[in-house]
Amino acid sequence: MSSLSLKDLPKVALDLKSELEGFNHSCMKKAATAEKNVLPSAEDVRQERQHSELIHDVETFKPDQLKHADTKEKIILPNAKDVAAEKTQQTLMSGIEKFDPSSLKHTETQEKNLLPDKDGTVSYFVTIIYHFCLWQSLRKIANYV
After folding, report:
1. Distance between CA atoms of 9 and 26, rounded to whole angstroms?
2. Phi/psi class of residue 139: alpha, beta or left (left: φ > 0; alpha: ψ in -120 to 50)?
3. Distances (CA, A) of 107 to 81, 101, 136, 137
């Protein structure tokens, strides 16, 4: 690293230089400087140590120290309910697939209008209201007695 000569340093304006030299430091308030060095807690140290040990163990792992293990495969057979349900589902699906729509009989749709005609409309509803009122009055009499 080479040192800079005086002429290479940046120049300060004369008015700013005179203000800096004439500044009165006694008008400033005193402030205590407190250095805060936050040290890690015991838990942080423990976690960092555990992590570094784990990394070290992974880096120094030797796969030739492992023992060979045989895998035991267990075949779990379905119970009787599952077998019956699957068989029922298969028979339904095969019945649907083999269905022949030509075996259906042809039908004619008949539309029936159950509403009363224009002439009987008023008398029909009047009769219904009359019977309802009669039924209500008979019910009140039966409850009164």
Report:
1. 30
2. alpha
3. 41, 13, 45, 48
Q: Tokens standing for 106?
A: 């042809």
Structure tokens at 8: 């290479």
Q: Which two tokens stand for residue 11?
A: 């120049």
pLDDT in tens, 33-80: 888 888 889 999 999 999 999 999 999 999 888 999 999 888 888 899
| Cβ pair 40, 48 in contact under 8 A | yes
How far, in Å, are 89, 91, 92, 101, 117 from residue 96 at the CA level?
11, 9, 6, 11, 45
* pTM for this predicted structure: 0.28
In whole angstroms, how large is the CA radius of gyration of the chain?
Answer: 51
pLDDT in tens, 89-131: 999 899 888 888 888 888 888 877 666 666 655 667 777 888 8
Q: Which amino acid does the sequence have at 121?
A: T
Residue type, 106: H
Tokens of residue 72, six digits: 């035991």
Instruction: Decide: 86 and 94 in contact? Cβ < 8 Å.
Output: no
